[in-house]
Amino acid sequence: MIGTAGFTSFDRKNNGAEAGYVINPLYRNKGYATEALSAIMNISFLSLGINRLEARYMVGNLASKRVMEKCGMNYE
C-alpha cells in the first residue's frame, strides 16, 4: 500500500473541510502526497464547492509542510 489520503472532517456550517494524507515510508519523496493533496483540493473546490480547505502537519515534518506549500496552501 502506498498510503491514504482524503478528508478528515467537514465543517458544514462554514462550508469547509480538512484534508489528510499518510504515505508509506517506502514511497516517500516520489510526489505521491503532492498528487493526492492536489486531487483533494480539486475535488473540494470544483466538485464539492468547499470554501476553505485546511490541513495540518506535525511539528518537524518539513516534508509534509512542503507538500502543502507546493499545492498553494498558506500557513496560518
Radius of gyration from the alpha-carbon trace, in angstroms: 12 Å
Helix count equals: 2
Major sheet characteristics: 3 strands, mixed
Percent of residues in helices: 25-40%
Largest sheet: spatial strand order: 1-2-3
Order of helices and strands: EEHEH
Mean pLDDT: 97
User: End-to-end span in angstroms?
Assistant: 32 Å
Shape: globular
Runs in which pLDDT lies below 50 for 5 or more consecutive residues are none
The secondary-structure class comes to alpha+beta
Question: How many individual β-strands?
Answer: 3
Molecular structure report:
The chain contains two helices and three strands. The protein is of the alpha+beta class and 76 residues long. A three-stranded mixed β-sheet has the order 1-2-3, with helices on one face. β2, α1 and β3 (52-55) form a beta-alpha-beta unit. It is globular, with a radius of gyration of 12 Å. The model has no long low-confidence stretch (mean pLDDT 97).
Task: Outline the fold blueprint.
Layout: E1 3-11, E2 16-23, H1 32-47, E3 52-55, H2 62-70
Parallel strand pairs: 2-3
Antiparallel strand pairs: 1-2
List keywords for this structure.
33% helix; 3-stranded mixed sheet; single chain; alpha+beta; 76 residues; 2 helices
Can you give me a brief rundown of this structure?
The protein is built from two helices and three strands.
